[in-house]
Automatic annotation (TrEMBL):
Keywords: Repeat, TPR repeat. Gene3D superfamilies: Tetratricopeptide repeat domain. This is Tetratricopeptide repeat. Residues 121-134 have a biased composition (Basic and acidic residues). PANTHER family: TETRATRICOPEPTIDE REPEAT PROTEIN 27 (PTHR16193). Residues 112-143 are annotated as: Disordered. SUPFAM superfamilies: TPR-like (SSF48452). TPR repeats lie at residues 552-585.
């Protein structure tokens, strides 16, 4: 096979391993591993120069070039880590390469390799013993399974130590590879060839080479966390590819670039790259709808969202030899959920045109982009699902990895849906099981799965990431024992500790770490795990010394312990050290920002949360905390913008909506705060915390908006400024300009749209939120020679604005009705409602809410003995007195005609107005009731409050109310 000879001629990465094997332990520090890796890269580079290997172009695949060697090596590496596990026959076939780079070669016993190919699937007895010993050596009880004198165990232990040695050489920025990585030596050889330079400054592979990008990205995927060094190297490759002329950018390369950008959370750039790939491919995508059903038993047709997609390029003929992953519980297997909506359950599934394999990968990328750019919500998942349904319904077979990615994304989307949760779990189990040769036909070969030209076009995870996802699902379903077994296989220490807590096996994690330390005593990660399991700082400081202060994990663990102990100064110190080593891990920045915020170091906290949002723009809590920092610094507008990003990424957290509401109130964002308060009430119900000051500010802003004193949003403010600019120039906007066209009919047609009214308000003509008095309007018209048509248009705009105000008043009235219903014993709520209703419906409506406020005040324990509560009651009675005297004056002015109409508002279901004699009797009865309430308060508080100023104020209030009773009787009797 092309490239094998070049691979076999490369230096082996096992050179010098004997110096670091002491007995059955590995003695290798990170500094020594870094030096060995550099030495190996130099050795490979010198070898390639000596062989006369020429510089490779982007598409150079000559038999004697470096690209075929890279292609074969990556195929072999992917076969072990991304698409399955090599069968015994394949290990024998490629045994020379595996042995050269430290891989495991399974011997087939006395009968040779032919016995494996002939096939009964039975292993030789010593092979079974070797396999069980290898699994035991990688697990928790490795050294105690077989006798130490067993030659099979000694061989397996040697292989395991070789893997540990080679994995250590792959460490970057202190981030070590995952413990279950296979063929690390082969990946080292791939990286050495990808980074080699024929002469200084002249790389063997150009930055635009896809193989350079693939090698570096595979290295990143094998590490436990993101590495800044690899990120910078990949960034150079991505920039070089995107700088190429458009005709040289292939669809496959654009997809790979987009996946790299998405992995590092540059989702805006990834979206642009995926869309470029779609345009380059000619794929046509249409999201549409149809009337139909989604299940076998559904009787009534409903509107169903579907995706139509067609390829411009011809679809290659289907291969009869390509393997397909097993689809669990599909429609053809009898599942009652249809693969794709259709008109009736009995109707034949609509035929769709086959898609090109690259177009299928594009659809998967676009589906992932929907998740990246939308909040985690049921609607988002439904939107993504239509892409998966289109791919599942496609008649053309998909490449193996494309089909696996399709099934994996469907399982992820269905994991939270009760109807198909079982199918999701079984599908994920099937995808995990296909990796293990022990769980499938041992004669089944997997190397062919990596032959597809579209292998790198999808973001299918490596085996350990898929196993972690499976374990996470088990953990969520309370299958803690199963989850723990998987976590132990991949040595996910944080999850192991959590599972041990759930199972009350806290010592198990410690014993596992100690057993592994016996074999690898210089591994800093094992000491970190031991320190986290025992919560002992000494183990973490030992890890810090072992890594030569070049690994962030010990500092992260020390910072987490300090955070639990609330030693925030130490948290900042330790996380500062961690992010200096590896600055691309968002979790460190988040905890650093939180600790700095607790210490009131606002500048440092703001920097940290800014980095969180840069690394992962979808981190809603990062945006929320950044807004909190800005709010404390009184940067209100940036804080409001940050909170808008937070709720964009998490629309189900009522605390974020409440924060958005508070900041918006200070900025006088009337329509935004009304919407935010409504949504927060929908989510939180009685959990929401409504502060009196914020609610009073909200009411004041609403009244000012309804009066026309302030605009509804900042957009209106800009329009207002533009209007004043027009007036100062003595001109008005051109009526023929589409931006100023009257929209009264549009809004009238949508009057029943409910929550969509704010969007319609944006259609109000420029400057329509500025109310002119009739005289001022006439003067302005005369000044510019306004025609009769222009006057009619201006009147129409005024009517539109009045309608907007009326609808907003109705919405706020309904909103307060909900609030009052939820908080029946909070006097502050009634106080704010009374202030609003006084403006909307008059003083008698306000008085009714004040009566409820008084009852809520007097329900407080010790209200007549505690000064603050008593003062609050007096404040309420004073407001009641003011409402009554205003209503009395209004009744006198109106006489028998009744009270005047409420200002600026006409509700869809307005409160019944009290008029004529009924109004008079209401005022008289109100005075009497208020006087009785004051007298009762004076009697109840006399013993404890007689010496306080509030009591004297109440006595004066009683005198005024008594006079009001007398005046009302004289006026109305």
């Amino acid at each position: 096979m092309a490239g094998v000879n070049l691979l076999l001629g490369l230096p082996t990465p096992l050179e010098g391993i004997e110096r670091h094997l002491v007995g059955d332990t590995l003695q290798l520090t990170l500094e020594e591993a870094d030096a060995l890796a550099s030495r190996y890269y130099e050795a490979v580079e010198l070898h390639l120069r000596g062989c006369g290997v020429a510089a490779a172009g982007d598409d150079d695949e000559s038999d004697d070039g470096v690209v075929p060697a890279l292609q074969f090596a990556l195929r072999l590496f992917n076969a072990e880590n991304f698409s399955g596990e090599l069968s015994p026959a394949e290990r024998t076939r490629y045994g020379a390469v595996l042995q050269r780079f430290g891989g495991v070669v399974v011997k087939s016993g006395r009968h040779g390799a032919a016995q494996v190919d002939e096939g009964e699937g039975e292993k030789h007895e010593d092979e079974e013993q070797r396999e069980s010993a290898r699994e035991a050596a990688a697990g928790a009880a490795g050294a105690s399974v077989l006798s130490s004198s067993s030659p099979v165990l000694a061989s397996v232990q040697r292989e395991r130590l070789q893997d540990l040695f080679l994995q250590r050489l792959l460490t970057a920025d202190g981030e070590m590879p995952v413990a279950t990585l296979r063929l690390p030596g082969l990946l080292l050889a791939v990286l050495a060839m990808a980074k080699a330079e024929l002469v200084p400054g002249a790389p063997l592979l150009p930055l635009t080479s896809p193989w350079r990008l693939r090698a570096l990205f595979r290295h990143q995927l094998c590490l436990s966390r993101r590495s800044n060094t690899i990120f910078l190297a990949l960034a150079d490759c991505v920039d070089a590819v995107l700088r190429q002329p458009s005709e040289e950018q292939t669809v496959a390369m654009l997809l790979e670039v987009g996946h790299v950008q998405s992995y590092y959370h540059r989702r805006d750039l990834a979206k642009e790259t995926f869309e470029t790939a779609m345009h380059r491919s000619g794929l046509r995508v249409e999201e549409t709808s149809m009337m139909g059903v989604r299940t076998r038993w559904q009787q009534h047709q409903l509107v169903q969202m579907v995706l139509n997609a067609t390829s411009r390029r011809p679809v290659p003929p289907a291969s009869t030899t390509d393997e397909q992953p097993k689809t669990i519980m599909a429609e053809r297997d009898g599942h009652d959920l249809l693969d794709r909506p259709r008109e009736t359950p009995e109707a034949t599934a609509e035929s769709v045109a086959p898609l090109h394999p690259e177009d299928k990968a594009i659809l998967l990328a676009l589906c992932m982009d929907i998740r990246n750019n939308n909040p985690d919500h049921g609607l988002t998942q439904h939107h993504m699902m239509i892409y998966i349904e289109r791919l599942l319904a496609d008649p053309a077979p998909s490449p193996f990895m494309v089909r696996c990615q399709t099934l994996l994304m469907r399982a992820r989307l269905e994991a939270r849906r009760n109807r198909v949760q079982e199918r999701a779990f079984m599908q994920l189990t099937e995808l995990v099981d296909q990796y293990s040769a022990a769980r499938r036909d041992p004669t089944h070969e997997v190397f062919g799965r990596t032959a597809s030209a579209h292998f790198y076009s999808v973001a299918f995870p490596p085996i350990w990431a898929l196993q972690r996802e499976y374990a996470d699902m088990c953990f969520e379903e309370t299958l803690y024992k199963t989850a723990l077994d998987v976590y132990e296989q991949i040595l996910d220490w944080e999850s192991i500790i959590e599972c041990c807590k759930k199972l009350d096996k806290r010592r198990r994690c410690e014993s596992l770490a100690r057993e592994l330390i016996e074999k690898d005593p210089l591994n800093p990660m094992l000491w970190v795990a031991l320190g986290e399991a025992t919560r002992d700082d000494a183990h973490l400081w030992k890890a810090w010394e072992l890594c030569g202060h070049k690994m962030a994990a010990p500092m992260r663990a020390l910072a987490r312990l300090a955070l639990d102990r609330e030693h925030y100064d130490k948290v900042v110190e330790y996380f500062d050290a961690a992010v200096r080593i590896n600055p691309v891990f968002g979790g460190d920045w988040f905890a650093l920002g939180y600790a700095a915020l607790r210490l009131q170091r606002l500048s440092r906290s703001g920097e940290a949360f800014t980095r969180v949002c840069q690394i992962d723009p979808s981190d809603a809590f990062g945006w929320n905390n950044l807004a909190s920092v800005m709010l404390r610094e009184r940067k209100l507008r940036p804080a409001f913008n940050a909170m808008s990003q937070a709720i964009r990424n998490n629309r189900r957290d009522w605390r974020m909506w409440q924060n958005y509401f508070r900041i918006g109130c200070e900025l006088k964002e009337v329509t935004e705060t009304t919407n935010a308060l409504s949504i927060a009430l929908d989510i939180a119900k009685r959990q929401i915390q409504l502060e009196r000051g914020t609610l009073e500010l909200f009411v004041a802003n609403t009244i000012a908006y309804l009066k026309g004193e302030i605009p509804g949003t900042s957009v209106d403010a800009a329009a207002d400024a533009d209007t004043h600019a027009h007036r100062s120039l003595g001109t008005l906007p051109d009526e023929n300009d589409i931006r100023h066209a009257p929209v009264a009919h549009t809004i009238a047609a949508g009057a029943a749209a409910g929550d969509g009214e704010e969007e319609m308000a944006d259609l109000v003509p420029l400057g329509a939120d500025v109310d002119l008095l009739p005289d001022a309007a006439a003067a302005a018209a005369a000044a510019v020679g306004m025609t009769a048509e222009a006057e009619a248009a201006a009147a129409e705009r005024e009517a539109v604005l009045d309608g907007v105000h009326r609808r907003h008043a109705d919405r706020v009235r309904a909103l307060f009705a909900r609030i009052v219903e939820l908080f029946v014993s909070d006097p502050d709520i009634y106080s704010c409602a009374a202030t609003l209703m006084r403006f909307l419906d008059g003083p008698i409506a306000s008085f009714r809410y004040r009566q409820k406020e008084l009852r809520a005040c007097e329900q407080k324990d010790q209200w007549c003995r505690e000064e603050t509560l008593f003062s609050r009651t007096v404040e309420c009675l004073q407001a009641m007195e003011a409402d009554l005297f205003d209503a009395f004056a209004e009744a006198q002015e109106a006489g028998a005609a009744g009270a005047s109409e409420p200002a600026h508002t006409g509700a869809a279901s307005p409160p019944t107005l009290v008029t004529g004699e009924a109004l008079q009797q209401a005022v008289l009865h109100g005075f009497k009731e208020t006087h009785a309430n004051i007298k009762g308060a004076l009697d109840a508080a006399e013993e404890h409050m007689a010496e306080h100023a509030a009591y004297a104020q109440l006595r004066e209030l009683a005198t005024r109310v008594r006079r009001g009773v007398q005046e009302a009787k004289a006026a109305f009797d």
